[in-house]
Amino acid sequence: MSGRAVFMLLLSLLAVFVVWMAVEPHDRADWMLENALVLLAVVALIVTRRWFVFSNQAYLLIFAFLALHELGSHYTYSLVPYDPALRKLFGFSLDQLMGWERNQFDRLVHLAYGLLLTIPLFEFCRRAVGLGRGWGYVFASAIIMATSMLYELIEWIAAVWFGGDLGQAFLGTQGDIWDAQKDMALASIGAVLAVALHVLLQRRSAGADTGAPSR
């Protein structure tokens, strides 16, 4: 498939998923607020294709993250029923196994923010900005950390602005006073893991191409 065909396929699948998640969300106002970010991201991806095209793998990572965010917006992040789903499908409780007392889906998405979006940013830093490989990794990770901090500020401002249940649903702290710090830390950890995995895969690929044993 061509790059354009892959992009259109991913865009279509995301559109179908968004429509599905739009059916009776837990909190319609929160769903609309959360989806403003998805709309902005999709518009940006469409517009920027005129002058910068990510690889198919990068688009796949981006759309995977948007799908996770969409799932969280349907239930609200603090109510995504991952544990009941695991109980039903596999017969065990992840929360009980890990000793968790809160819904951890928001933590997963913040980790995924770094894990899934660092490499697309690395591609941008390399090809659009012209950075070397090492600096590309550094700047991509720094962008993840900086935008994670910016998102926490946006959450805070939105929570104060809207107030009430909508503000609390969007904030999603679940009573944890260190929620913002933990979210930023997880995004940073995700970025570091993404870089480490990418370096490892690149080295293995280079070793396979040259016939040298991979380390």
Describe the structure.
By secondary structure, the protein is mainly alpha-helical. It has nine helices and no strands. The chain has helices at 3-21, 28-48, 56-75, 82-90, 94-98, 105-129, 133-162, 164-171, 179-210. The radius of gyration is 19 Å and the shape is globular.
First CA to last CA: what distance? 32 Å
- Rounded mean pLDDT score: 88
The tally of beta strands, per DSSP, is: 0
**Which structural class should the secondary elements be placed in?**
mainly alpha
CA radius of gyration is 19 Å
Keywords: Membrane, Transmembrane, Transmembrane helix
InterPro entries: YjdF, YjdF-like
Pfam family, one: DUF2238
Organism: Alloalcanivorax xenomutans
Summarize the structure.
79% of the residues lie in helices and 0% in strands. With 215 residues, the protein is mainly α. The mean pLDDT is 88.
Any descriptors?
215 residues, mainly alpha, 9 helices, DUF2238 domain-containing protein, membrane, YjdF-like, transmembrane helix
How would the blueprint of this fold be written?
Blueprint: H1 3-21, H2 28-48, H3 56-75, H4 82-90, H5 94-98, H6 105-129, H7 133-162, H8 164-171, H9 179-210
Helix pairs in contact: 1-3, 2-3, 2-8, 3-6, 6-7, 6-9, 7-8, 7-9
